[in-house]
């Protein structure tokens, strides 16, 4: 017998409350504000796809930092191009070594990032698959410091509607959805890029 929307909300509220009772530092302070229940579909609501996007994000952030280090090393080499003293020659040699290491790391990061990018691109081309339910929940509770604050989360529930299988902050879920939209746009435009949702913004890198 299919559940009505009302019974879904009630069941979701019970499951989420049971989960938060174990997860919150001060469960007695918990107070529900609002809850929304909807069907969940892979890949957009799939934990594995979330984790893959996060890996891409970490790789791209590391790539950005390494490219910055490479530029700094090049600038140092140029600055010490006419090095005369032993100390200046040492600084130039150190910069050259750093540049070589950065170049190798950049190449490795681009290859690894492109591999994960191609994997998730293939997943997005598949038909959507029903995997359970997603619950957006807004609530208030005390944090670990004992301060009362409003919070929100995205709770994934299995097909049987009897277990919370995964939880992430709602803000992070929204960022992941933005990343999915960006990736789909790139696929439609046939513009292969390595992208990342980091520091609360989406950054785009051309894959080489």
Give a verbal description of the structure.
It is a single chain. Helices cover 53% and strands 28% of the residues. The protein is α+β, with helices and mostly antiparallel strands and 208 residues long. A four-stranded antiparallel β-sheet has the order 1-2-3-4. Strands 5-6 form a two-stranded antiparallel sheet. The chain is elongated. Mean pLDDT is 86; it is low at 195-208.
C-alpha Rg (nearest Å): 24 Å
Low-pLDDT residue intervals, each spanning 5 or more residues: 195-208
Shape by Cα distribution: elongated
Separation of the first and last Cα atoms:
53 Å
Order of helices and strands: HEHHEEEHEE
Structural class assignment: alpha+beta
Relative helix content:
40-55%
Mean pLDDT reading = 86
Oligomer: single chain
Number of DSSP-assigned strands: 6
What does the largest sheet look like?
4 strands, antiparallel
Count of DSSP-assigned helices = 4
Query: Looking across the biggest beta sheet, what order are the strands in?
Result: 1-2-3-4
The portion of residues forming beta strands comes to 25-35%
């Amino acid at each position: 017998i299919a559940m009505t929307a009302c019974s879904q909300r009630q069941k979701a509220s019970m499951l989420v409350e049971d989960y938060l009772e174990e997860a919150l530092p001060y469960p007695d302070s918990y107070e529900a504000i609002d809850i929304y229940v909807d069907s969940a579909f892979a890949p957009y609501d799939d934990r594995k796809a979330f984790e893959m996007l996060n890996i891409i994000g970490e790789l791209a952030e590391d790539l950005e930092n390494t490219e910055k280090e490479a530029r700094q090393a090049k600038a140092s080499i140029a600055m010490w191009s006419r090095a005369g003293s032993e100390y200046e020659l040492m600084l130039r040699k150190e910069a050259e070594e750093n540049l070589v290491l950065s170049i190798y790391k950049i190449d490795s990061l681009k290859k690894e990032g492109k591999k994960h990018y191609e994997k998730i691109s293939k997943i997005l081309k598949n038909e959507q698959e029903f995997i359970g339910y997603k619950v957006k929940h807004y609530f208030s509770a005390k944090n670990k410091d004992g301060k009362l604050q409003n919070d929100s989360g995205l709770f994934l529930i299995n097909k049987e509607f009897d277990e919370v299988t995964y939880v992430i902050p709602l803000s992070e879920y929204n960022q992941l959805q933005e990343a999915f939209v960006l990736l789909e746009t790139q696929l439609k435009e046939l513009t292969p890029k390595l992208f990342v949702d980091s520091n609360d913004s989406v950054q785009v890198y051309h894959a080489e």
